[in-house]
Amino acid sequence: MDLETGTGVLTIAKFHTNRDSDSRNKVVTRTLGKFGVLHKFYEGIQPKEDEFWICRIIDNVRPNDRQGCFVLEPVKKVDYTTEVGKLMKGMYDEIVPENNKQLIYVKPKEKFKNHVWQLSLDDRKQFNGRHVIVMLDESLINNNIPKIEESNGKENQ
Fold first, then answer.
1. 10 Å Cβ neighbour count for 66?
2. Residue 75 CA to chain centroid, in angstroms?
3. Verdict on whether the full-model pTM lies above 0.90
4. What order do you get walking across the sheet with 27-29 strand by strand?
5. CA distances from residue 131 to 66, 76, 77, 139 in whole angstroms, order as listed
6. Where are the domains of the chain?
7. Kind of pairing, strands 36-38 and 69-78?
């Protein structure tokens, strides 16, 4: 994992159909604060409009710049209504790479690491246009993801 670029980090992305019908990128995401596309060699199930996926960041084109894009590999589709919770202040730590002030990582605290989280658009705005990556725990790939309503209320009280 390279925190200066995000390469190797597991995160959440919401996909949308690309409006540019001539592009080879049929779906894209803006979840990370800059454009995200699928890796050109990805051959798995194609994410669809409004689907949430746990993804691995394969590359960050122009990592110190607001322009460029994240290259992603979808790893696991998640159900937004039952498996994705809203990560709120106090539930995470912020990590800023030493040599890349354009990136910021939001890492769930230990007691919240076993769930899939996302930040709302309003919560992302507090980071003043920086690229915000919600770091997810590797255990979420191979384990069943607990339904968020089963534990969310207990952990946030």
1. 11
2. 12
3. no
4. 10-14, 52-61, 69-78, 36-38, 27-29, 16-17
5. 8, 22, 22, 24
6. 10-78, 82-156
7. parallel
Place of tokens 């915000």: 132
Q: What is the distance between the alpha carbons of residues 64 and 54, in angstroms, rounded to a whole number?
A: 24
Q: pLDDT tens, 21-59?
A: 777 888 889 888 889 999 999 989 999 999 999 999 999
Average pLDDT over residues 100-118: 92
Residue of 6, 22, 12, 88 lying closest to 51 (CA atoms) = 12
Three-class DSSP category at 83: helix
Locus of tokens 């939001």: 106
| Superfamily for the 10-78 domain | Nucleic acid-binding proteins (2.40.50.140)
